[in-house]
TrEMBL record:
A Pfam family reported for this protein in Swiss-Prot or TrEMBL: Mannitol_dh
Species lineage: Bacteria, Pseudomonadati, Pseudomonadota, Gammaproteobacteria, Chromatiales
Descriptive protein name: Mannitol dehydrogenase family protein
Residues forming coiled coils: none
Domain Mannitol dehydrogenase N-terminal per the UniProt entry, residue ranges: 30-277
Record keyword Transmembrane present: no
Sequence ranges assigned to domain Mannitol dehydrogenase C-terminal in this UniProt record: 286-475
Superkingdom: Bacteria
UniProt enzyme class: oxidoreductase
Record key words, sorted: NAD, Oxidoreductase
Gene Ontology MF terms in the entry: oxidoreductase activity
InterPro entries associated with the record: 6-PGluconate_DH-like_C_sf, 6PGD_dom2, Mannitol_DH, Mannitol_DH/Oxidoreductase, Mannitol_DH_C, Mannitol_DH_CS, Mannitol_DH_N, NAD(P)-bd_dom_sf
E.C. numbers: 1.1.1.-
Length: 488
């Protein structure tokens, strides 16, 4: 027998499942969050739940919202559970389950007028975002892409926005006209300088609508930069079964994550903020060194193991780490080409940080999939891998491993594993990428000519030659033999 999660069944949960120690009726809203997915519920929502269990931050409850139709299904599940979620934190040996109660409501996705009205109320003091790396409308040089059709539509019809940024601007306009102070906009996405990027996209769209309003936004809205980290796989039937079997709870959308978490944040919140430092958030003057460390060592590390493992037919991340060739590829690339290009980080030894990364990747409890790591390379490669390649070109140092990583991604996008099994579409631009990857088998320059991904680095002769050589080996000899050649 299992207990179906709801407000009415909290007292019936098994004793080893923690539940909110506060009266949720006493909570009030303070944060509106776009992107109520797994990472948000394992990160910001979990930090707030801990504060609330201490009797703090009771006026910082979360209201959710979104713009994508596919978010409606998740909202329906959460609504049926009165916005409760079960969070299972897993080390390699121990799993702990707790019910998160910091969410209060979820405005139906696509109901723009209702979202704008809720954002306009004075109780909302922070608007936070987890809209993925591809949600910020950036070009290959990480600049605002004013030509995107969705942005052009919001520029033409600001009163009926279709994007998150259009909704935020509409609400800010209402607040300005009503004399209500603007909320802080806080990105929790995994992109360099996420606050600055958010400012650029929001003011860029505002400039398309009304240049004077754009100046007001730039001068009055705060955009703190932050670095977030917690490995949080997507929920599948596997996780639902594990929760039922191990903890006796039925939850339509539980969140499984690792036991590690990190959040480094700049303290720029004019309307106040929860006392997050009391639950482990580190507030700093400049988050940049922490961002670079994480994006290069962890996220580029994920990309390093993802594509060879995908081509070898490996399903889970911990299995990839157990493969001698994939694990050794990660070790060598990190030690020779990635970590040497990470600037010093206050209070952190990079070798110790990488050792912790290896431990986290190898955690068998997480069940993180290789397919998830391979997802959306067209948005992730320009942020995690290409900047390191640029540095390698500039400093004249080794770039062989980076070129091999790029070749592995290209080979993956051709759409079949080394064994000939089909790779299902795994990128928003899959239909564009696949024929280019196929053509690159004989014309490797075709792949590097995608300036929206690589900018101008494909014109560098040394990198282009290394890329072409590795891609040729991958097609002729396969992934395992190519990794062995690199390691030798």
């Amino acid at each position: 027998m299992t207990v179906r999660l709801s407000e009415n069944t909290l007292s019936c949960l098994p004793g080893d499942v923690a539940r909110p120690g506060y009266d949720r009726q006493e909570l009030s809203a303070g944060i509106f969050h776009f992107g109520m997915g797994n990472f948000h519920r394992a990160h910001l929502a979990a930090y707030l739940d801990e504060l609330m269990n201490r009797g703090l931050a009771l006026d910082w409850g979360i209201v959710g919202g979104g713009v994508r139709p596919e978010e409606r299904a998740g909202r329906a599940v959460l609504a049926d559970q009165q916005w409760l979620s079960t969070l299972v934190e897993q080390s390699a040996t121990v799993s702990r389950a707790r019910v998160i109660g910091s969410m209060l409501d979820f405005v139906p996705p696509g109901e723009g007028a209702a979202i704008i009205e809720r954002l306009s109320r004075p109780d909302i003091r922070i608007v936070s975002l987890t809209i993925t790396e591809g949600g910020y409308f950036l070009d290959a040089d990480d600049r605002f892409d004013a030509s995107h059709p969705d942005l052009l539509a919001d520029a033409e019809a600001p009163e009926s926005p279709r994007t998150v940024f259009g909704l935020i601007l509409a609400a800010l306009r209402v607040r300005r006209d009503a004399g209500t102070a603007p909320f802080t906009v806080m990105s929790c996405d995994n992109i360099p300088h996420n606050g600055d990027v958010t400012r650029g996209t929001l003011t860029g769209l505002a400039r398309l609508q009304d240049p004077a309003f754009a100046e007001w936004v730039a001068g009055n809205v705060a955009f703190p930069n932050g670095m977030v980290d917690r490995i949080t796989p997507a929920t599948t039937d596997r996780e639902r079964r594990l929760l039922a079997d191990e903890f006796g709870v039925t939850d339509g959308w539980p969140v499984f994550c690792e036991d590690f978490r990190q959040w480094v944040l700049e303290d720029r919140f004019p309307l106040g903020r929860p006392p997050l430092e009391q639950v482990g958030v580190q507030f700093v003057e400049d988050v940049s060194p922490f961002e670079t460390m994480k994006l290069r060592i962890l996220n580029a590390g994920h990309a390093t193991i993802a594509y060879p493992a995908g081509l070898l037919g490996i399903e889970y991340v911990h299995e990839a780490m157990a493969d001698e060739r994939v694990g050794a590829f990660l070790e060598r690339l990190e030690q020779t080409e990635i970590i040497p290009r990470v600037p010093a980080v206050p209070g952190i030894a990079l070798d110790v940080y990488f050792s912790e990364i290896r431990r986290r990747f190898a955690n068998p409890k997480i069940g993180d999939t290789i397919r998830r790591l391979c997802l959306d390379g067209s948005n992730r490669q320009p942020k995690f891998i290409v900047p390191i390649i640029r540095d390698a070109i500039a400093d004249g140092g080794s770039l062989e491993g980076l070129a091999l990583e790029s070749a592995l991604w290209c080979r993956y996008c051709a759409g079949e594993t080394d064994a000939g099994a089909p790779i299902e579409p795994n990128d928003p631009h899959w239909e564009t990428l696949r024929p280019i990857a196929a053509a690159a088998r004989t014309e490797p320059a075709r792949w590097l000519a995608q300036t929206s991904i690589y900018g101008g680095i494909g014109d560098d002769a040394r990198f282009a030659e290394a890329f072409a050589g590795w891609l040729d080996k991958l097609w002729r000899r396969g992934t395992a033999a190519t990794l062995e050649a690199y390691l030798q």
